[in-house]
């Protein structure tokens, strides 16, 4: 009984002890609720209740309503369309040939650098710049760039390599949104439309470099690897041929020499490697090839095949049909109408060397490209009247028979079981 009495006497004390904190907490809660309403912080409550109500109504409905949440996903997007970056170069008297090649290659999705070297007349170079500036389509898209400060380019000399690297640097500065760099000359011409090429390249891994090459130097070891040459184009304003100096040098042991075609298709990543050179190899080899005969046929080949990062990306093909005499001479044969069947049968997208005889090119325009009246090659992007006077959707491709031929070539050189066996051997 004493315990009960003691507890009874404590209850009023405890109630008084909790009364103050309870009153204070209640006051704070009321203030917070009023403040929240004034600031709109509780405006989400109606939406919560409405969402709960909607969910409750769906859960009480028939089971098949759940089909709305398991609709088929959209079909996967096709492979992205690549963007190509071209260099088209020429020399004295090549203005019209270069212009024709540029038009046959044109696609608004691509990038182009055109160059007439310092041997060409100033009037030719000014005319080229004027044509590009005054062409309605080129001006509207802005993807054709003229090297107005012409370079001196000596055949078989390192100035051809420096000119190529110059074009690469311009393309990298203009845009990094391209996938392959392709170097051509005014003596080249396409055997497939750009829609054909872009369609086929869409299915290729973006790291493939097309460089025709070999380490079997043969006679080139004595006649190109060992002689020391000087290219006057490096320091003279007038074009002169390369000349030899003595004594000869030994073949290198710090790296392995490779040789091959001067025409190639290089990935943007490899071009960046050559131009920026985060490894010193591209610079070292550029200095070595300064005194090398026909350095355009060895520089890029030796760089890529001595770079572990890129050696497994090489496709041993230059994407060209080229006809040589037997035994081979210094220059390839000039192609004629009789060579067209073999050129088509090669499945290559480009051919060289073409002379100034327009009959052969007219035949290619009519039979392979669908090009008429000196205009652009028709493609999915072409709209307007006359055709290709306006730009439609550059991503709309209309591949034709050329895409089928090019696909066969890729199956042979890039997707075959022997692909790795032909790399840098």
Structure commentary:
This protein is an alpha/beta fold. It has one domain (about 85-420): Spore Coat Polysaccharide Biosynthesis Protein SpsA, Chain A (Alpha-Beta Complex). It has helices at about 1-40, 45-60, 95-105, 120-135, 135-140, 160-175, 195-200, 220-225, 270-275, 280-290, 300-305, 340-345, 360-370, 400-415, and strands at about 85-90, 110-115, 145, 180-185, 190, 210, 215, 230, 245, 260, 265, 315, 320, 350, 380-385, 390. The strands form six sheets. It has a five-stranded mixed β-sheet, sandwiched between helices. A three-stranded mixed β-sheet has the order 5-14-13. The protein has a two-stranded parallel ribbon with strand order 6-12. The termini are far apart. The model is unreliable at about 1-20 and about 35-70 (pLDDT under 50). Pfam families: Branch. Its main location: membrane. Keywords: Glycoprotein, Glycosyltransferase, Membrane, Transferase, Transmembrane, Transmembrane helix. It comes from Phoenix dactylifera.
Note the main attributes of this structure:
alpha/beta; 3-stranded mixed beta sheet; disordered N terminus; 5-stranded mixed beta sheet; Spore Coat Polysaccharide Biosynthesis Protein SpsA, Chain A; 425 residues
């Amino acid at each position: 009984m004493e315990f009960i009495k003691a507890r009874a006497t404590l209850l009023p004390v405890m109630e008084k002890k909790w009364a103050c904190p309870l009153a204070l907490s209640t006051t704070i809660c009321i203030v917070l609720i009023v403040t929240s309403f004034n600031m709109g912080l509780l405006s989400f409550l109606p939406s919560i209740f409405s969402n709960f109500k909607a969910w409750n109504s769906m859960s009480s409905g028939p089971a098949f309503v759940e089909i709305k949440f398991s609709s088929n996903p959209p079909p996967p997007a096709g492979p992205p369309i690549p963007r190509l970056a071209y260099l088209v170069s020429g020399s004295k008297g090549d203005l019209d040939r270069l212009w024709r090649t540029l038009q046959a290659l044109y696609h608004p999705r691509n990038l182009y650098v055109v160059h007439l070297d310092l041997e060409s007349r100033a009037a030719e170079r000014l005319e080229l710049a004027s044509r590009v500036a005054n062409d309605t389509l080129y001006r509207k898209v802005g993807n054709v760039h003229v090297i107005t400060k012409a370079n001196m380019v000596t055949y078989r000399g390192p100035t051809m390599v420096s000119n190529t690297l110059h074009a690469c640097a311009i393309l990298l500065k203009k845009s990094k949104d391209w996938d392959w760099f392709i170097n051509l000359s005014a003596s080249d011409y396409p055997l497939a439309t750009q829609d054909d090429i872009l369609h086929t390249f869409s299915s290729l891994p973006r790291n493939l470099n097309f460089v025709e090459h070999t380490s079997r130097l043969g006679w080139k070891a004595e006649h190109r690897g060992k002689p020391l040459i000087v290219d006057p184009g490096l320091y003279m304003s007038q074009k002169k041929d390369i000349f030899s100096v003595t004594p000869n040098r030994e073949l290198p042991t710090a790296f392995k020499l490779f040789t091959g075609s001067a025409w190639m298709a290089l990935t943007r990543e490899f071009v960046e490697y050559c131009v920026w050179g985060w490894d010193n190899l591209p610079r070292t080899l550029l200095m070595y090839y300064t005194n090398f005969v026909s350095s355009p046929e060895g520089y890029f080949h030796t760089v890529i095949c001595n770079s572990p990062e890129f050696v497994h990306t090489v496709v041993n093909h230059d994407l060209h049909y080229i006809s040589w005499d037997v035994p081979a001479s210094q220059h390839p044969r000039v192609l004629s109408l009789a060579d067209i069947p073999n050129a088509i049968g090669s499945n290559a997208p480009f051919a060289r060397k073409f002379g100034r005889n327009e009959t052969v090119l007219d035949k290619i325009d009519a039979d392979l490209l669908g090009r008429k009246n000196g205009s652009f090659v028709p493609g999915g992007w072409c709209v307007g009247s006359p055709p290709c006077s306006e730009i439609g959707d550059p991503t709309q491709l209309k591949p034709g028979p050329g895409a089928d031929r090019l696909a066969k070539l890729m199956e042979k050189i890039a997707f075959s079981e022997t692909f790795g066996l032909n790399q840098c051997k």
